[in-house]
Amino acid sequence: MATLRGLAKLGSQLAYRRGRPIAASSRAVSTESWRVKLNYQVPPPPGKRTGRYINQPDQGDTVDEHIPTETTMHNGRLLSPPATLETTGFSLKTWPTQCKDFSNDEEVAKMYYPEMRELVKAASGADRVFIFDHTVRNTDNTNLNAAAGGSAAPVPRVHCDYTATGAPRRLMQFANARVYSYLRKRVLTEEDFKELSAGRFAFINVWRNIVDTPVERSPLAVCDTRSVPESDHFLYELLFPDRTGENYSLRFSEAHKWYYYPRMVKDEALVFKVYDKQEDGPRFVFHTAFEDPLTKPSSPARQSIEVRAIAFFSGDSLEVRSKPCSLRLPEEGFLKE
């Protein structure tokens, strides 16, 4: 186990460029692992549920309490072989972007979404990918929910974005006439939903630093799915005026194996599953922003973007018990006029 003195030793490490080792473009932490504190959710008492109200008044029937819990953080840059979506549930890729203005939703959708669609395909082996949403985050903000055209704060709690029941319901919502994508355009018809949901599908996030300086404040940590038994999951509800979303929170265990990639640069992207219908591999990657002991008070604000994708698989990628689907929808989905 490294000491705080050891944490101060920075050195050149290996990153991976599309599966091949390259010299890191910035200095990375040379320590293999060290102790940090992550905010784990407190399970609810009887008569209460865990969650929060969003864009509506709090009804007093939820609790949303976290406890900073000491655990071990591992350096993802030292993994050999590197992590993949089919082993740990996450993967770091070098994938440059041509998008310049991440505050411009139209530019993000027209330029960045197609880039991320190809990245998700490459990382997952999916046949079709829809990008349906994105969030820009900045450590100078305090609100977890982004206003229109604005940014949100990083989420400093251990969570996974979907549940075993919430993910299929979220897919079904895209076939509802009242539920739209980020740009307020229809994604799926009811017929599309029935066909696509019969086969294997996965919700996948892509997280990227969007400024020229490496990430130092509130980096993103991800947990190896192989270290998290299903019995550690419990429900966290996001109570919107028009719908209820479901996250998983996590009961703490020292067995959880956490990783982060120190000093991520703009050309790197962290891809991770937040739901996979296929049950015999990684399904739910828990993740959280956290305070790195190496961070200096003068470090610049973290500015990042995360995009949310649905990946569809056909042919040999499907489980034998899943019904294949023809995937007639164009990849561009809601981006088509």
From TrEMBL:
Molecular function GO labels: oxidoreductase activity
Matches recorded under InterPro entries: AsaB-like (IPR044053)
Family statement: Belongs to the asaB hydroxylase/desaturase family.
UniProt xrefs under PANTHER family: BLL6449 PROTEIN, OXIDOREDUCTASE AN1597
Protein name: Uncharacterized protein
Species assigned in the record: Alexandrium monilatum
